[in-house]
């Protein structure tokens, strides 16, 4: 009787084990257990995407004064820009950009009665570029079309009938650029040829970012320019040449201090202050030789 009972227990146990093995074979291999004895759940893979990011940046900003290469164009300007970089190879990338600038309020001046209203200024810049990363430096070839909707600049203090400087409403420009880093200092330079007015411009600059916190830094910087063969130095008022002709020389020096603040992983707010110092070829064209100005921009990358 005891032998029969024991045989019955062994038989039932074998049947249970066989049933478990059958279930395990049907359902697949069981999940491994961790050190705590609990089942380890495999991580859920994220959906794939063609690109991690688009390589694009959207920026909006405000400037109390708009100086372009040391030449004053307008006051209280607001602007929006979109840029994109598309990698072609590991070292070569193709860039596209668009920037629209307009004045919120620019009082008449520079020969026009001050305090007598204000003039309009708006500009669209369209850019395409190729950038080659050689490791020790980056080299660029850039083409830019500038469209001036309210004549070339505000230098003439809101001259009626859209006369503007040199009566230019659009500019075609090609430039070459180079940038590199030496220790904590970023160095960059560029040479640009304006086919519309038949003159060239060169610029060099440097900046040195200083980390203040994990989300904020201070960036002292300086730029200096040189104009060749009357680069925006002759100012025409209703067709009359009022400035020096065929003059080459230093245009300006602009030291600046900006404070990029990283709001999120993709958004950065950057206030700045700068000091424009007009040099040889800008003394005639600018309303003020040397002055402080500033602004702020918000950039979002995606």
Verbal overview:
Residues 1-7, 19-35, 110-115, 153-165 and 235-243 have low confidence and may be disordered. The strands form 2 sheets. Strands 1-2-3-4-5-6-7-8-10-13-15-16 form a 12-stranded antiparallel β-barrel. A two-stranded antiparallel ribbon has the order 11-12. The chain has one helix spanning 2-27; strands at 56-68, 71-87, 92-103, 122-133, 138-148, 170-182, 185-194, 199-207, 210-211, 217-228, 236-237, 240-241, 249-258, 261-262, 267-278, 290-301. With 302 residues, the protein is mainly beta. The termini are far apart. The chain has a single domain, classed as Outer membrane protein (Lipocalin, Beta Barrel), CATH 2.40.128.
Provide a compact summary of the structure.
The protein is mainly β and 302 residues long.
Rounded mean pLDDT is 80
Largest sheet strand order: 1-2-3-4-5-6-7-8-10-13-15-16
| CATH hierarchy: architecture | Beta Barrel
Report the oligomer.
Answer: single chain
Kindly state the number of beta strands.
Answer: 16
Q: Report low-confidence residues grouped into runs of 5 or more.
A: 1-7, 19-35, 110-115, 153-165, 235-243
Major sheet summary line: 12 strands, antiparallel, barrel
Counted up, domains total 1
CATH homologous superfamily designation: Outer membrane protein
Helix content: under 10%
**SS-based structural class?**
mainly beta
Helix count, DSSP H or I runs of 4 or more residues:
1
Distance between the termini: 80 Å
**What's the CATH topology label?**
Lipocalin
Look at the structure and give the CATH class.
Answer: Mainly Beta
Radius of gyration: 32 Å
Q: Can you tell me the overall shape?
A: globular
What is the percentage of strand-forming residues?
Answer: over 45%
The H-and-E topology, N to C, reads as HEEEEEEEEEEEEEEEE
